[in-house]
Amino acid sequence: MPTPSRETAERLDRADPLIALRERFSLPEGMVYLDGNSLGALSVGVPAAVQTAIVENWGRHLINVWTEDGWWDVPLRVGDRVGRLLGAQAGQTVVGDSTSVHLFNVLTAAARLRPDRRLLLVEEGGFPTNHYLAASVARILGLEVRRVPMPDMASTLRRLGERVAVVTAGAVDFRTGELWDVCAVTDAAHDVGTLVVWDLCHAVGALPLTLDADGVDFAVGCSYKFLSGGPGAPGFVYAARRHHGDIDQPLSGWHGHAEPFAMVPDYEPTPGIGRLRVGSPNILSMLALDAALDVFDDVEMTAVREKNVALGDFFIEAVDAHLAGCGFELVTPRRGDRRGSQVTLRHPEAEGIMRALNKQGIMGDVRPPGLLRFGFNSLYISYTDIFTVVEALRSCT
Ligand SMILES: Cc1ncc(COP(=O)(O)O)c(C=O)c1O
Ligand SMILES: Nc1c(O)cccc1C(=O)C[C@H](N)C(=O)O
Question: Which positions carry N6-(pyridoxal phosphate)lysine (predicted)?
Answer without folding.
Answer: 225
